[in-house]
Amino acid sequence: MEVLITGGKGQLGHYLVKELLKEYSDINIIIIDNLTNAKSHLDHQSVEVIEANFEDPTTYSHPILQNASIDTIFHLAAQISVPESIRNPVSDFQINGLGTLKLLKWAKDNNINNFITIGSAATLGHPLHLPISTDHPQHPISPYGISKMTAEQYTTYFRDHYGLNFKVIRPFNIYSEIMKPNDPYSGVISKFIEFAKNREEFIIEGDGLQTRDFIHAEDVAKILVRSIHDTKKSIYNAATGVGTTILDLSKIIASIAGIPWRVRHVSPRPGDIKHSFGEKSELMDFDAIPLQIGLKQVYEIHNH
Which stretch of DSSP H or E encloses residue 221? Predict the structure, then answer.
């Protein structure tokens, strides 16, 4: 089995590679990553890394890819910053929208039947109902959400129009031990960990009653691997089905750190979505890492 992962040196890529190596003994993994947001230092004889941009067409003439027989593509690479998408919407779309389309066409032209695109809850905008289902209407409120929506829609178009096993996995708020403070999806966890480490009060934007669906990257990786041979649907959530308030998140981290829980509220972020949690993934036939345990692991790693 031969697998291509774009963005495979990032947070999710790290856990996906580990899960693939655990599940398949005869696997070869090729990673395309420009290393600008690399977090994984995983090294394995079955993993080859091409340092390049996935959206650059010349990347696919690399000798490693020319000699490969790829079965499955996991498309993890993306421009993931909402503020950056507002500053540079053209660049954001060239990577997330047009770049994904180029890769989908390359996969089709090279008879690669399995293609899994990482989607985003940002494609949905303000939820009309909770928990958020996979068929929830898409009303993105940022250029990032628009470009990711386009990537999702092109993926499902290729599935429907060409009869290929192409699908979208839509993660909610990913976190893990190797996340960095500037990660858009786990930023609040990173900030709270820093407050706890420094025994500072927790600064919360707004009333703190916003809800988010925090899911460990290891669990998302398991869902991705289970999706390879699944043909039932074109879109799946990677969600726990549990909404956690930002206030409760701060209380959990304060408890883990063994510090008094002190909060200071500041102005809410403009346009911030109040509630966002998804229906539990149908591919989650395992026990997800409980948030309390996952956060304890993160705190212990980041507090050394």
Answer: helix 217-227
Which range marks the domain in which residue 16 is found? 2-172+217-238
CB 51 within 8 A of CB 33: yes
Distance CA 278, CA 269 (A): 22
Q: Is the pLDDT of residue 271 over 90?
A: no
The pTM of this model reads: 0.96
Beta-strand pair 211-212/244-245: antiparallel
DSSP 179: -
Q: Is the omega angle on the peptide bond into residue 131 within 30 degrees of 0, that is, cis?
A: yes
- Angle between helical axes of 246-257 and 291-302 (0-180°, round to 10): 50
Residues 192, 145 within the same domain: no
Cβ pair 98, 55 in contact under 8 A: yes
Q: Is the dihedral of CA 250, 252, 257, 262 positive or negative?
A: positive
| pLDDT value, residue 186 | 62
| Rounded-to-integer distance, Cα 147 and Cα 280, Å | 25
Model confidence at 8, in pLDDT bands (50, 70, 90)?
A: very high
Band of the pLDDT at 269, cuts 50, 70, 90?
confident
- Residue 276 CA to residue 131 CA, distance in Å, equals 8
Q: Which two tokens stand for residue 42?
A: 């995983």
Question: Does residue 20 sit in the same domain as residue 156?
Answer: yes
When divided into structural domains, the chain yields a total of 2
The letter for the amino acid at 57 is P
pLDDT band of residue 204 (cuts 50, 70, 90) is very high
